[in-house]
Every structure is written in structure tokens, then in C-alpha cells.
UniProtKB/TrEMBL annotation:
Signal peptide (residue range): none
Pfam families (UniProt xref): FtsK_SpoIIIE (PF01580)
Listed name of the protein: Cell division protein FtsK
Superkingdom of the source species: Bacteria
PROSITE patterns assigned: FTSK
GO terms assigned for molecular function: ATP binding; DNA binding
A single BP term in Gene Ontology: cell division
Record keywords, A-Z: ATP-binding, Cell cycle, Cell division, Nucleotide-binding
Gene3D superfamilies: P-loop containing nucleotide triphosphate hydrolases
Amino acid sequence: MSDQLWWMLGVLAAVAAGLWAWRRWHYRSFWLLIGFPITAISIRASWRKIALGCNLTKKRQRFWFTTVPGLIASTGVVRVRRKWQRIAVDTKPFMWLPLPTRYGWRVTLHTLEGQIPADYADVAERLAHSWGVHAVRVSSDKPGRVRLAATIRDPLVKVDELPPSTELLKVTVGRLETGQPWIIDFRTVPHYINAGATQSGKSNLANALIVGLAPQPVALVGFDLKGGVEFTPYAPRLSALATTRAECGGLLDDLVALMTDRMGMCRMASARNIWQLPPGLRPVPIVVLVDELAELYLMADKSEKDEIAKASTALLRVAQLGRAFGIYLFCCGQRIGSDLGPGVTALRAQCSGRICHRVNDPETATMTLGDLDPAALDSARTIAAETPGVAIVASQDGQWYRARSFYVSEHTAEYAARTYADQAPTWADVMIAQPVDTPDQQTA
Ligand SMILES: Nc1ncnc2c1ncn2[C@@H]1O[C@H](COP(=O)(O)OP(=O)(O)O)[C@@H](O)[C@H]1O
Ligand SMILES: [Mg+2]
């Protein structure tokens, strides 16, 4: 008997060790085959209680097998008995089978009458705590349906590299919390605002862009209002670099003139944008990187007023018309607020790509992310200083995501800039609107 007991204990210990090792060495298969089925069963089993706890249920009249007071026994105790009867019961939203995802699971629910996805978004944190997961995100791809996506652990603590994108003007810069790549695609979203406190990872993202765009047939232009300390090392791959406000003014004038040229060219060819031009005629697309945007608008004394107004108008024109003529903006700054003047507010309205790194004050998050879901703002405020590169990204699909850029050191970006220096058209070449061989692509 005791032999048998030892034997069984031995087997149990071996199984436990095996499971531990499996989980440790190949978490994905362990999750799919063992972890997920157990989780799925427990999610389904506990859904009524959790929905009730999160106020997601509705009262409905149903036949229910329930207790009713019966006879009073001679001892005075009320005896209850069970009986089918019509009573008001709490009905939970219908839940489909949960499906495993890379970092957790997702499940679709049918909303009950009068409910909207925001009701679920409001209780996302309660749901996350009830299920013991890192976060629950709510989305809705169809009226009457809500999709809850749970991530078990924060997937952005460590992000591994992805293969670079090979498409023109598309750069894979990091990873979204869903496990999908975080892609900056200038052809879909032409202008970006990249906000964040110092040391939050703004320059890292700019580096990732430089590394991604350097091998492509694209002209890169830098506006570095930190006196050139950020972008000067990348000068070999830049077609133009402005480091003072005066230089910025000149370069912006050039960009506006170039845009006017391209406009004329498109008009002559009856094209609405440069992508509709025949490939042989198509001018080179330009990506303009701006670091410390606020410096462009800051006024020390009145004498600078005109200069600032001119630069601000030119930048706004580039933002308004640039998309069609292949000029794209990527503006980085610590604060991009209305206190900097009306120019910056108008510019912000033109930049549909919004990236908000860790910020010091809630207003900056609000200003960057605009009227996105309040949960996005909360999420932006809770980005930890230990995870630089984490940002809230307003995506092309109208959703927001937490994302983290890949770590790209200055050294890597410098190396890329030097390696692909011969890809950089000179500014004079860009200005005479020489067409370059860009791969033939669909119209933007
Ligand atoms: N995605 C990232 N992963 C890991 N470390 C990062 C990441 N982004 C930034 N860092 C670290 O944070 C530091 C500050 O980033 P940086 O881009 O210079 O911030 P900012 O330009 O906002 O001041 C960098 O030196 C880098 O070591
Ligand atoms: Mg920086």
C-alpha cells in the first residue's frame, strides 16, 4: 500500500515537473493545449457571476426552478420547496466560445437591450481584475456585438524584432499589444504627431523611422530645433537639414515652392496626386522629420513674431496639401498644445497619426490623442518610466492601441544613414522635381 502511494506521488511529481518545464520552455504550445482550455472553461463557468458583479446583466421574466416558501411545520420552521415558476432573473450577455490569442484570449458577446460597447469599456478594469488578467480591451466590429480581448501579461515588457517592411513609405517600428506589428504607413496616414516627455522614447521612434526609410527611394528632411544635436549624425542620408529657425523658414519656403511645382505637374497630367502620375514622371516622396516642434513656435520677443507666423503658415500648408504631393510630416515634441499659438492647433488637426508616449501632464495626452476614448487617455497616463518606447497609438482603423517601438540606438540609425548615404537625393535634385524610379504602386 505504501509502495503504491510512493509510486503515485512520484508520478504526480513527474507530471508537475513536466508541465512546469513545458510551460517554461515552450509557453505557446502549453498555453494552447493546457492553459487555454482550462481558462476557457473557467471563463464560461464564471460568466454569470462576473457579469452580475460588473452590472452587465438585465432583469428578464423567465421560468426558473427555484425555491418557494412551503408549509410552516409544527416547529415553526418554514419549509421551502423547489418549483418551476416565472420570476425576474438576471440574464447575462450571451458569450461565444473564447478563442486563444498570442497573449491571452478574446471572446465575442451579444449586447443586451439598451447596452452599448461603452458600457463594457467602462467596466473593462473590473473584468480584468475578475479574470485576473493584465488588461481587457473592448471593441465592436458589428452592431450588437462586443469583442473583449484579454491580455494575460503585459506583452510590451519585452518586444522582439520583426522583419522590416519592404513596401514604399511603410515602416515596421514596433509591436502592438495585440502582437501585431506597429506599422507607420505614410501612404495611409500622411502626417504624425509624436508626443512624450523627455526620455520617453520619441527619438527612438524617429531612429526606427530613419532605419526603415533609409534604404527606400525616399528623400528625408530634418528639422532639428535642438540645434542639430539629434539629426546631424544622420546628415549623410538627409537631403536637407535645418537647425535654426531661420534655416527652417528657408527650408519650409522651399517645401511650399516644391509643392506648388508638383501641383502644376499633377494638373498638367490630369492626376490628383503624384501616385496617379506615370512612374517615370513621379517625383520622389519626401518625409519631413521635425524634432522639438514647440521650438518653432516659441517666441522670445516681438521681433520674432513675423518669422514664426511665416514658418507656422508654411508648415500648415505643407500639412494641408502635402499628402497629395508626396510630402509627409512626422512631428515630435514634448508639448504640442494650443498655448503655442493657433498655428500649432491647426497643424495638429491635420495630423491624423497620433502617438502619445509617456507624458508629464494629462493635458498633453488629451491634446495629442484628442477626443479618443477616455480609456486611451487613462492608459497614456499610466505608462511607466521604466518602459520607454511604450506609446498609445491612434490607429488607421479608428481604434487605439498600446504599442512599443523596437529599441533602435543612435548608433544603429547612424550606421543606416551612412550605409544608405548614396540613396539620398541632393536638395537641388529634389527641388528641380526630378522624377526617380519609385516602384509602381496603387494610388494613394
Ligand atoms: N523602445 C524602446 N525600448 C527600449 N529602450 C528604449 C526604447 N525607446 C527608448 N528607449 C530608451 O530610452 C532612452 C530615451 O529615449 P529617447 O528616444 O532618447 O527619448 P526622448 O527622445 O523622448 O527624450 C533611450 O536612451 C533608450 O535607451
Ligand atoms: Mg529626444
